[in-house]
Write a structure and sequence with these properties.
29% helix, 7 helices, 4 strands, alpha/beta
Amino acid sequence: MSEILLPAPWKVAIPDLQAKISDVMAQLDGSFMNPKKDLVLRAFDLAPNHVKAVIVGQDPYPAPEHACGLSFSVPREVRKLPPTLVNIRKELISDLGIQISDSGDLSPWSKRGVMLLNRTLTTAPGKSLAHLAKGWESITDDVISYLANKPVIFLLWGRRAQELSSIIPAQQQICGVHPSPLSAYRGFFGSKPFSEINSKLVPLGLGAIDWTI
């Protein structure tokens, strides 16, 4: 398997990250994976000094047509959205009172400083958490630890994301119920996470995020 390369700003920020990524990909050599190989590091297209907020996901969507390298997002052409993403869109509209497109593509957020990072960067097609404990968690923990020392706000939905809370200053984290249909009605709806991120960013002098899609 040819190597996937971390963008230069991240290599400078966390020097041993590329070697760790190469080790994980070597373990997975020959495996079918979601997302496609050229999208595995897509979240890192956002340079570390441009990150204002991080939304932590669990792992890529199991459906190959959904996984795109950005947590919770799907490609723009997808019309049948995953239920979790449907719930995120509902809360986005409820929270901010904005009109949004019918797309599930959240990449506009990443262009505005929101890193959409899964804790595990790959999975097997059709199976959630297939690549758990392959080494991705160490990589994403390093990323979170690095960003936690900067004025960045972290949105941690659900138990696996909240495992990171111990390495993030309390004032920089927002913990909430996962938007999955299994848990969304236990406190996700009405939690207003997007306006809360903005309310934490503005005092830092970073400016509110435009959440339209």
